[in-house]
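Recall from the previous lesson that a structure prediction takes nothing but the amino acid sequence as input. Here we apply that procedure to AhpC/TSA family protein from Pedobacter hiemivivus. The sequence below is the only information supplied.
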Amino acid sequence: MKRIIISLLILCPGVLFAQSNFIIKGKVSGPMSTLKNVYLNYNDGAFSGRTDSVEIKKGEFEISGTMKDGSYNAATLAIGNSRSRMRPDQQLTLFIKKGERITVDVEGALPASKITGSVQTELYQLLSDSLLRTKDVDQSLAILKRLIVQYPDSKMACKTFFNVFGTGRVQRFPTKFPEIANLFSLFSPQIQGSKEGLAYSKYMESISHLVIGGTLSDFTSKTSEGKVVKLSDLRGKYVLVDFWASWCIPCRGEFPHLKKAYTRFKDKNFEILGYSIDHDKSLWISALENDDVPWINVSNLLGPEDPIAREYQIYGVPANFLIDPNGKVIAVNLRGELLESTLEKFIK
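The prediction returns the following C-alpha coordinates.
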Protein backbone atom coordinates (compact mmCIF):
# COMPACT_ATOMS: atom_id res chain seq x y z
CA MET A 1 0.00 0.00 0.00
CA LYS A 2 2.80 2.44 0.93
CA ARG A 3 4.55 1.81 -2.39
CA ILE A 4 1.36 2.60 -4.31
CA ILE A 5 0.79 5.80 -2.35
CA ILE A 6 4.36 6.98 -2.83
CA SER A 7 4.21 6.18 -6.56
CA LEU A 8 1.03 8.23 -6.95
CA LEU A 9 2.56 11.14 -5.06
CA ILE A 10 5.43 11.15 -7.52
CA LEU A 11 3.18 10.88 -10.56
CA CYS A 12 0.90 13.82 -9.78
CA PRO A 13 3.05 16.70 -11.12
CA GLY A 14 3.19 15.24 -14.61
CA VAL A 15 -0.51 15.33 -15.38
CA LEU A 16 -1.14 18.04 -17.96
CA PHE A 17 -2.61 17.82 -21.43
CA ALA A 18 -2.46 20.34 -24.21
CA GLN A 19 -6.22 20.81 -24.36
CA SER A 20 -7.84 23.59 -22.38
CA ASN A 21 -11.12 21.79 -21.62
CA PHE A 22 -11.70 18.77 -19.41
CA ILE A 23 -14.05 15.92 -20.29
CA ILE A 24 -15.69 13.36 -18.03
CA LYS A 25 -17.12 10.21 -19.59
CA GLY A 26 -19.01 7.62 -17.60
CA LYS A 27 -20.87 4.34 -17.63
CA VAL A 28 -23.70 3.75 -15.18
CA SER A 29 -24.99 0.33 -14.19
CA GLY A 30 -26.63 -1.26 -11.16
CA PRO A 31 -28.92 0.76 -8.87
CA MET A 32 -27.84 4.11 -10.35
CA SER A 33 -28.98 3.11 -13.84
CA THR A 34 -32.56 4.08 -13.02
CA LEU A 35 -31.55 7.74 -12.54
CA LYS A 36 -31.72 10.25 -15.38
CA ASN A 37 -29.18 13.03 -15.04
CA VAL A 38 -25.57 13.84 -14.19
CA TYR A 39 -24.76 17.13 -12.44
CA LEU A 40 -21.31 18.64 -12.13
CA ASN A 41 -20.68 21.45 -9.66
CA TYR A 42 -17.17 22.87 -9.85
CA ASN A 43 -14.89 25.84 -9.43
CA ASP A 44 -13.60 26.79 -12.87
CA GLY A 45 -10.73 28.80 -11.42
CA ALA A 46 -12.56 32.10 -11.71
CA PHE A 47 -16.02 31.42 -10.28
CA SER A 48 -17.00 28.82 -7.69
CA GLY A 49 -20.38 27.15 -7.77
CA ARG A 50 -20.78 26.58 -11.52
CA THR A 51 -23.16 23.70 -12.25
CA ASP A 52 -23.55 21.85 -15.56
CA SER A 53 -25.76 18.87 -16.31
CA VAL A 54 -26.32 16.20 -18.97
CA GLU A 55 -28.77 13.36 -19.48
CA ILE A 56 -27.73 9.74 -19.09
CA LYS A 57 -28.44 7.88 -22.33
CA LYS A 58 -28.26 4.10 -22.59
CA GLY A 59 -26.24 3.95 -19.39
CA GLU A 60 -23.60 6.42 -20.56
CA PHE A 61 -22.86 10.13 -20.22
CA GLU A 62 -20.32 12.72 -21.24
CA ILE A 63 -19.93 16.11 -19.58
CA SER A 64 -17.26 18.73 -20.13
CA GLY A 65 -16.22 22.14 -18.89
CA THR A 66 -13.50 24.75 -18.99
CA MET A 67 -10.95 25.55 -16.31
CA LYS A 68 -9.57 29.11 -16.21
CA ASP A 69 -6.24 28.16 -14.65
CA GLY A 70 -3.83 25.24 -14.50
CA SER A 71 -4.45 24.19 -10.90
CA TYR A 72 -6.57 21.35 -9.61
CA ASN A 73 -10.08 22.46 -8.66
CA ALA A 74 -12.53 20.57 -6.49
CA ALA A 75 -15.74 19.37 -8.11
CA THR A 76 -18.79 17.32 -7.15
CA LEU A 77 -20.28 14.87 -9.63
CA ALA A 78 -23.82 13.80 -8.76
CA ILE A 79 -26.33 11.43 -10.34
CA GLY A 80 -30.06 11.83 -9.77
CA ASN A 81 -33.36 12.99 -11.18
CA SER A 82 -32.99 16.54 -9.84
CA ARG A 83 -30.32 18.67 -8.19
CA SER A 84 -32.21 18.76 -4.89
CA ARG A 85 -32.09 16.11 -2.16
CA MET A 86 -28.99 14.32 -3.38
CA ARG A 87 -27.93 11.53 -1.03
CA PRO A 88 -24.24 11.00 -0.15
CA ASP A 89 -24.17 7.78 -2.18
CA GLN A 90 -25.20 9.81 -5.25
CA GLN A 91 -22.25 12.23 -5.01
CA LEU A 92 -18.59 11.89 -5.90
CA THR A 93 -15.73 14.26 -5.09
CA LEU A 94 -13.37 14.98 -8.00
CA PHE A 95 -10.22 17.08 -8.36
CA ILE A 96 -10.00 18.29 -11.97
CA LYS A 97 -7.29 20.06 -13.93
CA LYS A 98 -7.76 21.51 -17.40
CA GLY A 99 -6.82 19.07 -20.12
CA GLU A 100 -7.79 15.96 -18.19
CA ARG A 101 -9.79 13.16 -19.77
CA ILE A 102 -11.59 11.36 -16.97
CA THR A 103 -13.61 8.16 -17.00
CA VAL A 104 -16.02 7.14 -14.27
CA ASP A 105 -17.34 3.59 -13.97
CA VAL A 106 -20.43 3.60 -11.74
CA GLU A 107 -21.66 0.20 -10.57
CA GLY A 108 -22.95 0.88 -7.07
CA ALA A 109 -22.70 3.89 -4.79
CA LEU A 110 -21.11 6.81 -6.64
CA PRO A 111 -18.24 7.41 -4.12
CA ALA A 112 -17.01 3.85 -4.78
CA SER A 113 -16.81 4.39 -8.55
CA LYS A 114 -13.62 3.47 -10.41
CA ILE A 115 -11.88 6.64 -11.61
CA THR A 116 -9.18 6.85 -14.26
CA GLY A 117 -7.57 9.85 -15.94
CA SER A 118 -7.65 12.07 -12.83
CA VAL A 119 -4.53 11.33 -10.82
CA GLN A 120 -5.37 13.56 -7.86
CA THR A 121 -8.86 12.06 -7.61
CA GLU A 122 -7.39 8.56 -7.73
CA LEU A 123 -4.90 9.53 -5.05
CA TYR A 124 -7.65 11.09 -2.95
CA GLN A 125 -9.75 7.91 -3.13
CA LEU A 126 -6.79 5.70 -2.23
CA LEU A 127 -5.63 7.88 0.65
CA SER A 128 -9.10 8.45 2.09
CA ASP A 129 -9.87 4.75 2.07
CA SER A 130 -6.54 3.60 3.51
CA LEU A 131 -6.22 6.36 6.13
CA LEU A 132 -9.76 5.91 7.45
CA ARG A 133 -9.30 2.15 7.70
CA THR A 134 -5.95 2.13 9.46
CA LYS A 135 -5.70 2.25 13.25
CA ASP A 136 -2.09 3.38 13.08
CA VAL A 137 -2.37 7.12 13.70
CA ASP A 138 1.40 7.61 13.41
CA GLN A 139 1.35 6.16 9.90
CA SER A 140 -1.53 8.44 8.99
CA LEU A 141 0.40 11.45 10.29
CA ALA A 142 3.49 10.45 8.32
CA ILE A 143 1.59 9.93 5.04
CA LEU A 144 -0.33 13.19 5.42
CA LYS A 145 2.86 15.10 6.21
CA ARG A 146 4.46 13.82 3.01
CA LEU A 147 1.33 14.75 1.05
CA ILE A 148 1.02 18.27 2.49
CA VAL A 149 4.72 19.08 2.16
CA GLN A 150 4.57 18.12 -1.53
CA TYR A 151 1.22 19.80 -2.18
CA PRO A 152 0.76 22.61 0.39
CA ASP A 153 -1.73 24.45 -1.86
CA SER A 154 -3.72 21.37 -2.89
CA LYS A 155 -7.45 21.24 -2.27
CA MET A 156 -7.18 17.47 -2.52
CA ALA A 157 -4.56 17.34 0.25
CA CYS A 158 -6.71 19.64 2.37
CA LYS A 159 -9.85 17.53 1.99
CA THR A 160 -7.86 14.34 2.68
CA PHE A 161 -6.53 15.93 5.87
CA PHE A 162 -10.03 17.00 6.94
CA ASN A 163 -11.37 13.49 6.29
CA VAL A 164 -8.91 12.12 8.85
CA PHE A 165 -8.35 14.96 11.34
CA GLY A 166 -11.26 17.31 10.67
CA THR A 167 -13.56 18.96 13.20
CA GLY A 168 -15.08 16.36 15.48
CA ARG A 169 -12.23 13.89 14.78
CA VAL A 170 -9.24 15.57 16.43
CA GLN A 171 -10.43 14.73 19.94
CA ARG A 172 -10.21 11.03 19.11
CA PHE A 173 -6.45 11.47 19.22
CA PRO A 174 -5.85 13.57 22.36
CA THR A 175 -2.13 12.76 22.60
CA LYS A 176 -1.52 13.79 18.98
CA PHE A 177 -3.03 17.27 19.07
CA PRO A 178 0.32 19.14 18.70
CA GLU A 179 1.31 17.00 15.71
CA ILE A 180 -2.08 17.47 14.05
CA ALA A 181 -1.92 21.23 14.59
CA ASN A 182 1.58 21.27 13.11
CA LEU A 183 0.35 19.35 10.06
CA PHE A 184 -2.30 21.96 9.38
CA SER A 185 0.31 24.72 9.68
CA LEU A 186 2.15 23.19 6.70
CA PHE A 187 -0.65 24.19 4.34
CA SER A 188 -0.19 27.33 2.28
CA PRO A 189 -1.61 30.70 3.43
CA GLN A 190 -4.27 30.30 0.73
CA ILE A 191 -5.53 27.03 2.24
CA GLN A 192 -5.28 28.25 5.83
CA GLY A 193 -7.01 31.51 4.90
CA SER A 194 -9.88 29.84 3.05
CA LYS A 195 -13.34 29.65 4.59
CA GLU A 196 -12.76 26.03 5.57
CA GLY A 197 -9.25 26.76 6.81
CA LEU A 198 -10.33 29.64 9.02
CA ALA A 199 -13.17 27.55 10.46
CA TYR A 200 -10.72 24.76 11.24
CA SER A 201 -8.29 27.15 12.94
CA LYS A 202 -11.13 28.48 15.07
CA TYR A 203 -12.18 24.94 15.97
CA MET A 204 -8.64 23.94 16.92
CA GLU A 205 -8.37 26.99 19.14
CA SER A 206 -11.71 26.15 20.79
CA ILE A 207 -10.55 22.67 21.85
CA SER A 208 -6.92 23.49 22.68
CA HIS A 209 -7.75 23.53 26.41
CA LEU A 210 -9.46 20.13 26.24
CA VAL A 211 -6.59 18.02 24.92
CA ILE A 212 -3.54 16.70 26.74
CA GLY A 213 -1.35 19.61 27.73
CA GLY A 214 -4.22 22.11 27.73
CA THR A 215 -5.65 23.84 30.79
CA LEU A 216 -9.34 23.28 31.46
CA SER A 217 -11.52 26.36 31.66
CA ASP A 218 -12.75 27.17 35.13
CA PHE A 219 -16.45 26.83 35.87
CA THR A 220 -18.85 27.35 38.77
CA SER A 221 -21.79 25.13 39.66
CA LYS A 222 -23.76 23.91 42.67
CA THR A 223 -24.15 20.67 44.59
CA SER A 224 -27.60 19.20 45.24
CA GLU A 225 -27.53 21.01 48.62
CA GLY A 226 -26.87 24.33 46.90
CA LYS A 227 -23.18 24.67 47.80
CA VAL A 228 -21.22 26.65 45.19
CA VAL A 229 -18.21 24.78 43.81
CA LYS A 230 -15.56 26.06 41.38
CA LEU A 231 -13.20 23.79 39.52
CA SER A 232 -10.35 26.08 40.55
CA ASP A 233 -11.21 25.39 44.21
CA LEU A 234 -9.64 21.97 43.66
CA ARG A 235 -6.37 23.31 42.24
CA GLY A 236 -3.44 21.53 43.90
CA LYS A 237 -5.07 18.10 43.48
CA TYR A 238 -5.36 15.54 40.73
CA VAL A 239 -8.98 15.85 39.63
CA LEU A 240 -11.17 13.72 37.39
CA VAL A 241 -13.86 15.97 35.89
CA ASP A 242 -16.58 13.46 34.99
CA PHE A 243 -19.57 14.43 32.83
CA TRP A 244 -22.55 12.13 33.23
CA ALA A 245 -26.36 12.01 33.48
CA SER A 246 -28.87 10.03 35.54
CA TRP A 247 -30.45 8.59 32.37
CA CYS A 248 -27.06 7.47 30.96
CA ILE A 249 -26.69 3.74 31.70
CA PRO A 250 -23.01 3.56 30.58
CA CYS A 251 -22.23 6.55 32.85
CA ARG A 252 -23.62 4.83 35.91
CA GLY A 253 -22.00 1.60 34.80
CA GLU A 254 -18.65 3.37 35.27
CA PHE A 255 -19.41 4.31 38.89
CA PRO A 256 -18.03 1.05 40.41
CA HIS A 257 -14.69 1.73 38.69
CA LEU A 258 -14.74 5.35 39.83
CA LYS A 259 -15.53 4.24 43.40
CA LYS A 260 -12.63 1.81 43.40
CA ALA A 261 -10.19 4.47 42.23
CA TYR A 262 -11.66 7.09 44.57
CA THR A 263 -11.38 4.82 47.62
CA ARG A 264 -7.75 4.03 46.80
CA PHE A 265 -6.54 7.56 45.96
CA LYS A 266 -8.83 10.02 47.79
CA ASP A 267 -6.32 10.42 50.60
CA LYS A 268 -3.46 10.87 48.13
CA ASN A 269 -4.36 14.25 46.68
CA PHE A 270 -7.07 12.98 44.31
CA GLU A 271 -10.66 14.13 43.86
CA ILE A 272 -13.54 13.44 41.48
CA LEU A 273 -15.81 16.29 40.39
CA GLY A 274 -18.93 14.86 38.81
CA TYR A 275 -20.90 17.20 36.55
CA SER A 276 -24.42 16.08 35.67
CA ILE A 277 -26.08 17.29 32.49
CA ASP A 278 -29.50 16.45 33.91
CA HIS A 279 -32.33 18.97 33.88
CA ASP A 280 -34.53 17.23 36.48
CA LYS A 281 -33.18 17.70 40.02
CA SER A 282 -35.18 14.82 41.48
CA LEU A 283 -33.75 12.33 38.97
CA TRP A 284 -30.23 13.64 39.57
CA ILE A 285 -30.50 13.33 43.36
CA SER A 286 -32.15 9.91 43.08
CA ALA A 287 -29.26 8.60 40.98
CA LEU A 288 -26.69 9.94 43.47
CA GLU A 289 -28.50 8.30 46.38
CA ASN A 290 -29.23 4.98 44.66
CA ASP A 291 -25.63 4.62 43.46
CA ASP A 292 -24.22 5.92 46.76
CA VAL A 293 -21.87 8.37 45.04
CA PRO A 294 -19.28 9.66 47.59
CA TRP A 295 -17.43 12.30 45.55
CA ILE A 296 -18.36 15.92 44.77
CA ASN A 297 -21.25 16.25 42.33
CA VAL A 298 -22.58 19.44 40.79
CA SER A 299 -25.06 20.48 38.12
CA ASN A 300 -26.70 23.59 36.73
CA LEU A 301 -29.66 21.43 35.68
CA LEU A 302 -29.69 22.83 32.16
CA GLY A 303 -29.58 19.51 30.32
CA PRO A 304 -27.23 18.59 27.46
CA GLU A 305 -27.30 22.17 26.13
CA ASP A 306 -25.71 23.49 29.31
CA PRO A 307 -23.14 26.18 28.30
CA ILE A 308 -20.50 24.44 30.41
CA ALA A 309 -21.10 21.17 28.56
CA ARG A 310 -20.82 23.03 25.26
CA GLU A 311 -17.63 24.77 26.41
CA TYR A 312 -16.21 21.34 27.14
CA GLN A 313 -17.42 19.99 23.77
CA ILE A 314 -19.60 17.37 25.50
CA TYR A 315 -21.84 15.88 22.82
CA GLY A 316 -22.13 12.49 24.48
CA VAL A 317 -21.67 11.01 27.94
CA PRO A 318 -19.82 9.56 29.75
CA ALA A 319 -16.86 11.85 29.14
CA ASN A 320 -14.07 12.83 31.50
CA PHE A 321 -10.82 14.75 31.85
CA LEU A 322 -8.02 14.02 34.30
CA ILE A 323 -6.07 17.13 35.30
CA ASP A 324 -2.91 17.52 37.37
CA PRO A 325 -2.54 19.85 40.39
CA ASN A 326 -1.81 22.77 38.01
CA GLY A 327 -5.01 22.20 36.05
CA LYS A 328 -3.26 20.68 33.01
CA VAL A 329 -5.03 17.86 31.17
CA ILE A 330 -3.02 14.65 31.48
CA ALA A 331 -5.58 12.11 30.22
CA VAL A 332 -9.09 12.02 28.74
CA ASN A 333 -12.01 9.59 28.60
CA LEU A 334 -10.66 7.04 31.04
CA ARG A 335 -12.91 3.98 31.22
CA GLY A 336 -12.96 0.92 33.45
CA GLU A 337 -9.67 -0.04 35.09
CA LEU A 338 -7.82 2.50 32.94
CA LEU A 339 -8.53 5.28 35.45
CA GLU A 340 -6.85 3.39 38.28
CA SER A 341 -3.86 2.33 36.19
CA THR A 342 -3.43 5.91 34.93
CA LEU A 343 -3.53 7.33 38.45
CA GLU A 344 -0.84 4.82 39.44
CA LYS A 345 1.52 6.52 37.00
CA PHE A 346 1.07 9.96 38.56
CA ILE A 347 0.24 9.36 42.23
CA LYS A 348 2.83 7.43 44.21
